[in-house]
């Protein structure tokens, strides 16, 4: 009897081992087979980054970026900005700048607008990898931006989207402009861009009728902006162009020309 049990146990042990070996080999072969038709990584479609369409989403992106106090900026760089010596320097002295390394400039900040769309296009701006490799030491950029203007910009994009228009036809011309850059670009002396509170946009064919015009496309944007900034904020209309300025100043301001 004992012999019989031992024999049964022994044979089942052998069977189990054989089963393990077979299953191991079959998975090995399976893996090999699966590896063969696999396409090289570079031919796989690039995963598209989701658009940022909530206020919390904007805060989340900003929350991950390192902030640097105005007085922590390199003194040479700080002097080149042009705040020093201005009577209204106090407006920037308590502020923090976002430190933007090249690696994150193509991250979505609002909708599919990238961080790079809000950066100053000055000598520190790096548009592509080739330039970056040439200028490793100056690969950092600093951005002063009021989160409120970003939230109001998102409100505008959501208005446009909900009404069935295409906000992808909007381009950002300017966002932050430090005083010296503002001066070079012909901005007004008290420009809200210097405090990161303003955005200039170019309105394309958002109503998708095949024509980019002031009467329809730009008017849609201006009407939405009036709904957003009822008691405060600036809106510049710039007739004869597709440009629109808006800012989050405390008082209400409207103008037709620069
Ligand atoms: Zn402007």
Give a verbal description of the structure:
There is one protein chain. With 258 residues, this protein is an alpha+beta fold. The protein folds into two domains: 40 residues; 201 residues, Muramoyl-pentapeptide Carboxypeptidase, domain 2 (2-Layer Sandwich). Helices cover 38% and strands 16% of the residues. It has a five-stranded mixed β-sheet, covered by helices on one side. A three-stranded antiparallel β-sheet has the order 1-2-5, with no helix packed on it. A hairpin with a 6-residue loop joins β8 and β9. α6 packs across α8. The relative contact order is 0.10. About 8% of the residues have low confidence. Zinc ion binds next to β7.
Given as residue ranges, the uncertain stretches (5+ residues, pLDDT < 50) are 20-40
**CA radius of gyration:** 29 Å
- Level-1 CATH class name of the largest domain: Alpha Beta
What structural category characterises the helix and strand content?
Answer: alpha+beta
